[in-house]
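Review session, final week

We close the course with one last complete record, chosen because it touches almost every idea we covered. It is guanosine-3',5'-bis(diphosphate) 3'-diphosphatase, a protein from Pseudidiomarina terrestris with 705 residues. Go through it on your own first, then we will talk.
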Amino acid sequence: MYLFEGLRQQLAEYLPPDQVQRAAAAFKLAAEAHKTQKRRSGEPYITHPVAVAGLLADMRLDHETIMAALLHDVIEDTEFTQEDLAEQFGATVAELVEGVSKLDKLTFNSKEELQTENYRKMIMAMVHDIRVILIKLADRTHNMRTISHLRPDKRRRIARETLEIYAPLAHRLGIHDIKNELEQLGFYALYPWRAKLLESQVKQARGNRRELVERVQKEIETRLADHGIHARVLGREKHLYSIYQKMLHKELQFEQVMDIYAFRVIVDEVDTCYRVLGALHNLYKPIETRFKDYIAIPKSNGYQSLHSSLKGPHGIPVEIQIRTEEMNLMADRGVAAHWLYKTEESSGTTAQVRARRWMQSLLELQQSTGNAFEFIENVKSELFPEEIYVFTPEGRIIELPQGATPVDFAYAVHTDIGNTCIGARVNHKVYSLSKPLETGQTVEIKTAPGSRPNIAWLNFAVTGKARAKIRQYLKGQESLEAEQLGERLLRAALGSVSYDDIKVAEFERVCAEVKLESKSALLREIGLGNMMSVAIAKRLLGELQQPKDEQVVTAGNQRSLSIKGADGLLVSFAKCCRPIPGDDIIAHVSPGKGLVIHRRECKNVRGHEDEPGRYFPVQWDNKPDAEFITEVRVEVVNHQGALAKLTSNIAASGCNIHGLKTEEVDANIYYIDVALTVHDRKQLADVIRHIRKMPDVQRVARLRK
C-alpha cells in the first residue's frame, strides 16, 4: 500500500473519506491483479495505473474516474472481467474500464485500418462518456513520460500518433496542460535532434531577452495598480513544439517567432477583464487587427479570454491574454475542470456542454460516413479548428473552421439547405460558393427545390459534416440511377417475355438464390455491372432448372459447341482447370467475359454455393464436336529417347500435342507436362492408358493447378 500513500494524500485534499476508501479498494485489486507484471523499465506494473490516477487527481476528477484509472488495464491484462469489477465497484466504474480497454484490443488486417478503427472507437467511446477519454489521455501522458524504454521504431510510431491525434484531442477538449506536455514529449521522441537544437536556441534567446521582459512586466503591473486593479501578471513562454510548428507552417525564421513577448493577466471577475484591456490600451498602442474577444464568443472547446496585441517599448510586439481565475483553470484543464466547477447554466459556455455538442456532431458524422478512413480524415480536420464566426440573416452565430465556404455554412444550418443550395449572398452581395468566409460576415443562402449537391463542392467544402452529407447524397443518387439502368437491362434480357408479367414470387425466389435482400438490390447489382442481366433473366424464367433445348454457343476461337441453357452468352473455358466434356462443370458469371466454364473441383470456384449470384449451372451437350485442350503430367525415367517415345505414343493414339514443358525432379526422374487436344474424358482416359503402358513411365495423371 506504500505506493498508494502519495495518491491517498492527493485525493484526501478534495474527496470525502469514504470515496478515498473506495479508491484504496480499487488500488488493492489492481495491485493484486498486476502483481506478477513488470513494465519495460523493470518497475512493478502497478506504478503505471497509480501515476495515471495521480494525473487525474491533479485535475480534481471524481472518485469513479480515479478508480477506473487504477483499474484501466485490469480487464485487458488479467483474469478479471467487467462483471467482476461491476460487482465490486459498481457499473459506472466497470463501464469506464471497459471503454478504455476497448480502445486497445482490436485486431485488423492492416496498420492503417488498425489506427483508423482505433481512433473511431476512441471517439465513439468519448461520446458515450467523456471520462473514458480523460483516462486515455492521462494514460498516454504517462506512457510518453516513460517512452525512452521502448524500441526506436515503436517510439516513433507512438510519438507520431500522440502528435496527430491525442494532443489535438486534448486541445479540442480544452485541456492545455496535457496538450502541452504531450506535444513536448512527442516532439522529443519523434524529432530528438530538432528538439535539442531548438531548445538550446530558445535558452540563449531567453537570456538575451530577460531585461526587456522584466521591464514590460513592471510597466504593466504599475499601470494596473494605478487603476486600482488587483491582478496577477505572468510572462508566458511559448513551448518548443508550437515554436517549431510556427516556423514550419508559417515559414518564419527562429528570430521572427521569438520576437513576440507574451503575457497573461489574471483577474477576479469578467468586468475587470475589460477594465484591464482599457488600461493596457492606454499604456501601449494596440495593433489594429489583432484583437479577439473570446469571452463574448468562446471557442468551441469552451476557451474564454481577451487577446490583444500591442506595440511595446522600442516597437516590439507584446501579446496579452486577459482572463479570470475560472477561465484560466478552464484553459488549462478544459472539460476536466467541469467536475470542480459544477455550474448550473446550460447556455453552452462551459467547456463540458460545448465538448458534448462537438461530440454529438461527431456521432452524426460517424453515422453518415461510409468508412473509418473517411471518418478519421474528417475528424482530423475537425481537431485543428481555427474558428471563424459568421451570422445568419436572423443574427444567429454559426461557428466554422478556418477556410470554410458558404457550402459549409449551408450544411451547418441544415442538411436540406445544403443539398438544395444554389448560391450565396454575403453582406447583401453575391458571393462565390467556393470562396472562404471571414469572421463577422452575414451569410444568406439561396436554395431551389429540386436542385442537388454538385460533386465539385468536395474540392472546397471543409467541414466533415458538409463533406459527409454531399457524399451521402451522391451515393444515394448513384444507387437510384443504377437501379433504373438495371431495370432497363433486365427488360432487354427478358426478350419476348414482359418484365411486368413476372410475378413478385419469382423475384423473391431469385433474390433468395443470389442472397440479396430485395428486388431493388437485385436491379442495382445488374445496373452496377456486378451481375449479368441475361443470367438473372434465365433464373427468373426458371430455365436453369430444366434447360429446354440445346443452345449453340461460340466458344472463343473454337468451333461451335453445344452447352445447354447458355444462349446469347459469350462462353470461354478456364485455363486454370481446363474442363473437357464429361467433367462436372459450373460457369462463373463475369460481366466482362460472359460465362467462364470451370471444373466443379477447381480451387478457383471453391465456395460457389456461398455466392450463387456469381455462378451459373451449365451442362455439356451429348454430341460435342469441338476439341478441347487439357494437360497431363507424366513422370518418366530419363533414358535417351524417352521424350521421343512419349510423343510418338501420344500421336499414335490420335491426339495432337499442343505444348510441352519438362522439369527435372532429380538425377534420373523428369516431369513432362503435356498439353493435348481431346474431344472428351473418354478419349483422355484412352491416351492416359496408352502412356501408362510405356516401360519408362512411373506415373501419369491429369494436371490440376
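Two points worth writing down before the exam:
Residues 67 and 636 are 75 Å apart (CA to CA).
DSSP finds 26 helices and 21 strands in the chain.
Good luck, everyone.
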